[in-house]
Amino acid sequence: MATSSPAALSSLFCHNIEIKTSQIYFPPFCASLSNHKHSSPISCPSLIKRRLASSSSPAPTRLLCTFSSSSNTTKLEFIDGSSEVELRLDLGNGDISSKDIFVDSNESSLTVRVQQAGLFRTLMDTRVLYERIKPAETIWYIDEDQLVISLKKQVPEVEWPDIVESWKSLTAGVKQLLKGTSVYIVGESTETNQRIAQELADGLGYTPLSTMELLEAYAKESFDSWASREGSKTVEEVESAIFESLSSHTRAVVATLGGEMHGAARRAHRWRHLFAGFTVWLSKSEATDKDTAKEEAKRLMESDLQGYSNAEVVVKLEGWDPACSWRVSQAALSALKQLILSDKNLTGKKSLYVRFGCRGDWPNIKPPGCDPSIVSQASSSSSPVL
């Protein structure tokens, strides 16, 4: 991936937001297509199938790697075990004893230094390990010309594609965690949604889809001309129908229409089928630091004033630079990883929600035969949905 300037990096804030637990019902899409000039099926099944068929097959997870850091020439061998990860670092030439080794670890970082001839040399310094460890159980020893470090995982069942959290390790790790569940990108800008959806799809080996392109395939003309003639209400209804068609598909990253194009995702009652996948909200931020961005995200998530507040992950952006889009994509993957690891049954719940017909009862899924609207109507008097 490309590198970014410090200014660009400081403008990005990423937050993992837990799923709401309140009972909310979203009514099914019931718009009549007979009133539209284009009365053909709007799911665009042939186009969707072609896109899905072109996606690459899953690549095997890498458990062993050797690489050289760009900041030094230390060679590192990484092995992922069932409950721990092992690092082997070349110590190089010279007589080095255990008294010359300094290993400093905490839950998410690791620094390794060696002292030779009165000078310290850094063998490894990472502030973002792929996942959390138990620093008190870190063990290290010298094996001939290598330093061997054993790190105990906090979550043993999570496979580590690499020692650090990077684009390469996140795409491999999150792909494993998603288990085929699709991802939906929502936010104020259609262009931004499409750019990030394409990058995530490329990294995950998923199929990139754009509701704007599917709308154009349905309308057989440019989106702008069709939308200006049909109006915002029709745009919302047709995109909602596309959400319904896509809800049964797997391994896709879907870019939705932005708010400036009257996208359906900005309306809370249009989210019934978006809950079939994981949703990432790319939100413009007025915050100047991570703490205020976090508070801003919480206020928006709790307000229910716009449909985007239903998103499970929020990536806060201070401005937008297409050249730094990879950074936004990486932040989205990091947040998705944290979200899924916070609830190991989350992907299974998504699958169950789809099998039950995306009835709008996410995340409190009701048994078959139960009408979620009854519960919603009972609670609507005290908690109206905007």
Quick structural gist:
The chain is α/β, with parallel strands linked by helices. It has helices at residues 6-10, 45-53, 167-178, 190-204, 211-219, 223-230, 232-246, 290-303, 325-342, 346-355, 372-380, and strands at residues 12-16, 64-68, 75-80, 84-90, 101-105, 110-116, 119-126, 139-143, 146-152, 183-187, 207-210, 252-255, 278-284, 313-317. Strand 8 and strand 9 (146-152) form a beta hairpin.
SSE topology:
Blueprint: H1 6-10, E1 12-16, H2 45-53, E2 64-68, E3 75-80, E4 84-90, E5 101-105, E6 110-116, E7 119-126, E8 139-143, E9 146-152, H3 167-178, E10 183-187, H4 190-204, E11 207-210, H5 211-219, H6 223-230, H7 232-246, E12 252-255, E13 278-284, H8 290-303, E14 313-317, H9 325-342, H10 346-355, H11 372-380
Parallel strand pairs: 10-12, 10-13, 11-12, 13-14
Antiparallel strand pairs: 1-14, 2-3, 3-4, 4-9, 5-6, 6-7, 8-9
Q: Quick one: CATH class of the largest domain? A: Alpha Beta
Report the sheet-strand fraction. 15-25%
Give the H and E element order.
HEHEEEEEEEEHEHEHHHEEHEHHH
The Rg value, from CA coordinates, equals: 24 Å
> Which shape, going by the Cα principal axes?
elongated
Q: The CATH topology of the largest domain, please?
A: Rossmann fold
Strand order of the largest sheet: 1-14-13-10-12-11
Secondary structural class? alpha/beta
Helix content: 25-40%
Number of domains: 2
Query: Uncertain runs with pLDDT below 50, 5 residues or more?
Result: 1-47, 49-71, 377-386
Tally of helical segments: 11
Annotated CATH architecture of the largest domain:
3-Layer(aba) Sandwich
How many angstroms separate the termini? Answer: 41 Å
Q: What is the count of β-strands?
A: 14
Give the integer mean of the pLDDT values. Answer: 79
The major sheet is characterized as:
6 strands, mixed
